């Protein structure tokens, strides 16, 4: 199987599972928010945010090191799995104690911290699953990750429906996350038993030192990304009186945005091991893969941003109902942070694949710091709208920073990017005109038809060029990819 076909197989499996997972996650979001209401959903969102920041202590970037190193040398699998699990046990204990200490030091009540600790434990369990999924990713057998994604999201939705039918409170609802994470871990344990070498449990101190040293840049990126994603909710809880309802409005919009992240994660996650190999074998192909990834993600991100901005109020009303109407303006702002995340992801995976993960760590550190500063000024005056604006401003800064470094490395903006961007905007304009002209149609039908119009136009306008058509033909026919001359 050639490179393009491997990318296609992995992307198809990941895309299929993530689309199914998206559907399950969407309904989970709808039922959860409508059942809990703005205040209780705000409290649950805070617990998720707080735990998601402190969980970095249980995973300092080890999973990313596993993917990179095992993809290059599979003989390391057994020793990496065994020592990674042992390290995680130690880190998990530190995480649980540290989170409890920080929460009580900040003055959060015991009832709130109980929810935080249940969510935290579920994230720790998921981090153990991440060891196996990292090796599976390095082996490029993405179908097992795909099945795991579907199982996890299905179980989450099932347990949520059971919790709702049982009338549990928000504390009981937190156990939906914990039970689902244990079932997911069980699945990945079975995959490991069937498809991977048995772990070697002898502690290798030199390996621990190496993995920690190599993981720190990934880990720093992870912690600052988590801070960036979740610190706004924590700051709302600290800077606004009676914040639960506001956190509910804000996070209802944020969840709709974040749920779309499966798109760049699916595509770039499937090609990351291959890009890592190209770094040591073919810099020309690495550049080619980067340019195509950038263009594809831009062509998807911009119409999503435009369409959500136009339909924001209708989308919130459809998904959450009138109680969450204030979420609409946050959604219309936050969607542009997600559009930038799509594009920035291409830079991030490029730097990780060429062993420049420290660039991503530096970018996320600066972004997290900027986001905190902006939130300190904007949240007290503009509440959750200020937090939304700070998020977009931070992603714009990240784009400019990553573009600057990528250009110095010889991977700047793709060729013909301006031309492609103008054509994409023309197609988006046609899409908006259709939405405005036929706004009497049901929202789901408007979305489907406008998406068809957009993709038809980018084909007509040749945003999709001959190289894209050639690649698509190879995916379908199995013809070996020809080497580019020069």
TrEMBL record:
<dbReference type="InterPro" id="IPR050833">
    <property type="entry name" value="Poly_Biosynth_Transport"/>
</dbReference>
<feature type="transmembrane region" description="Helical">
    <location>
        <begin position="215"/>
        <end position="241"/>
    </location>
</feature>
<feature type="transmembrane region" description="Helical">
    <location>
        <begin position="296"/>
        <end position="312"/>
    </location>
</feature>
<feature type="transmembrane region" description="Helical">
    <location>
        <begin position="174"/>
        <end position="194"/>
    </location>
</feature>
<feature type="transmembrane region" description="Helical">
    <location>
        <begin position="324"/>
        <end position="347"/>
    </location>
</feature>
<feature type="transmembrane region" description="Helical">
    <location>
        <begin position="150"/>
        <end position="168"/>
    </location>
</feature>
<feature type="transmembrane region" description="Helical">
    <location>
        <begin position="253"/>
        <end position="275"/>
    </location>
</feature>
<feature type="transmembrane region" description="Helical">
    <location>
        <begin position="417"/>
        <end position="435"/>
    </location>
</feature>
<protein>
    <submittedName>
        <fullName>Lipopolysaccharide O-side chain biosynthesis protein</fullName>
    </submittedName>
</protein>
<keyword id="KW-1133">Transmembrane helix</keyword>
<keyword id="KW-1003">Cell membrane</keyword>
<feature type="transmembrane region" description="Helical">
    <location>
        <begin position="89"/>
        <end position="109"/>
    </location>
</feature>
<dbReference type="InterPro" id="IPR002797">
    <property type="entry name" value="Polysacc_synth"/>
</dbReference>
<dbReference type="GO" id="GO:0005886">
    <property type="term" value="C:plasma membrane"/>
</dbReference>
<feature type="transmembrane region" description="Helical">
    <location>
        <begin position="43"/>
        <end position="68"/>
    </location>
</feature>
<feature type="transmembrane region" description="Helical">
    <location>
        <begin position="115"/>
        <end position="138"/>
    </location>
</feature>
<feature type="transmembrane region" description="Helical">
    <location>
        <begin position="384"/>
        <end position="405"/>
    </location>
</feature>
<feature type="transmembrane region" description="Helical">
    <location>
        <begin position="12"/>
        <end position="31"/>
    </location>
</feature>
<dbReference type="Pfam" id="PF01943">
    <property type="entry name" value="Polysacc_synt"/>
</dbReference>
<keyword id="KW-0472">Membrane</keyword>
<feature type="transmembrane region" description="Helical">
    <location>
        <begin position="359"/>
        <end position="378"/>
    </location>
</feature>
<keyword id="KW-0812">Transmembrane</keyword>
<feature type="transmembrane region" description="Helical">
    <location>
        <begin position="441"/>
        <end position="464"/>
    </location>
</feature>
């Amino acid at each position: 199987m050639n490179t393009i076909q491997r990318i296609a197989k992995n992307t198809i499996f990941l895309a299929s599972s993530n689309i199914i997972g998206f559907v399950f996650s969407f309904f989970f979001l709808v039922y959860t928010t409508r059942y809990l209401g703005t205040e209780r959903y705000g409290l649950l969102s805070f617990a998720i945010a707080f735990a998601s920041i402190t969980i970095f202590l249980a995973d300092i970037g080890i999973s990313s090191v596993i993917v990179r190193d095992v993809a290059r040398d599979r003989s390391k699998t057994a020793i990496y799995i065994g020592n990674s699990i042992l390290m995680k046990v130690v880190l998990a204990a530190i995480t649980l104690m540290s989170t409890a200490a920080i929460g009580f030091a900040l003055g959060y009540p015991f009832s709130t911290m109980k929810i935080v600790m249940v969510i935290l434990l579920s994230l720790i369990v998921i981090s153990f699953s991440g060891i196996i999924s990292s090796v599976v990713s390095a082996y490029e057998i993405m179908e097992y990750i795909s099945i795991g994604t579907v199982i996890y999201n299905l179980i989450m939705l099932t347990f949520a429906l059971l919790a709702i039918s049982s009338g549990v409170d928000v504390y009981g609802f937190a156990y939906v996350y914990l039970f689902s994470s244990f079932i997911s871990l069980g699945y990945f344990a079975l995959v490991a038993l069937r498809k991977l070498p048995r772990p070697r449990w002898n502690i290798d101190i030199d390996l621990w030192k190496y993995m920690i040293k190599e993981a720190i840049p990934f880990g720093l990126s992870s912690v600052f990304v988590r801070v960036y994603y979740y610190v706004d909710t924590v700051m709302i809880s600290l800077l606004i009186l009676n914040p639960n309802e506001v956190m509910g409005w804000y996070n209802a919009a944020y969840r709709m945005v974040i749920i779309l992240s499966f798109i760049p994660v699916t595509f770039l996650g499937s090609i990351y091991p291959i890009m890592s190999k190209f770094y040591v074998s073919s810099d020309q192909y690495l550049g080619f893969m980067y340019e195509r990834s950038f263009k594809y993600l831009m062509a998807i991100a911009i119409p999503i941003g435009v369409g959500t901005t136009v339909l924001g109020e209708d989308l919130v009303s459809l998904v959450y109902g009138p109680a969450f109407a204030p979420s609409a303006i946050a959604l219309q702002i936050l969607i542009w942070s997600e559009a930038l995340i799509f594009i920035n992801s291409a830079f991030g995976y490029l730097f990780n694949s060429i062993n420049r993960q420290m660039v991503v760590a530096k970018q996320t550190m600066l972004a997290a710091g900027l986001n905190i500063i902006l939130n300190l000024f904007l949240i007290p005056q503009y509440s959750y709208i200020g937090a939304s604006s700070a998020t977009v401003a931070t992603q714009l800064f990240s784009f400019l920073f990553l573009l600057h470094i990528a250009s110095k490395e010889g991977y700047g903006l793709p060729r013909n990017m301006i031309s492609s961007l103008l054509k994409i905007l023309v197609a988006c304009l046609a899409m908006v005109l259709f939405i405005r002209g036929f706004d009497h149609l049901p929202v789901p039908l408007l979305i489907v038809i406008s998406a068809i119009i957009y993709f038809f136009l980018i084909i007509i306008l040749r945003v999709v060029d001959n190289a894209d058509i050639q690649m698509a033909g190879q995916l379908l026919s199995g013809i070996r990819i020809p080497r580019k001359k020069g």
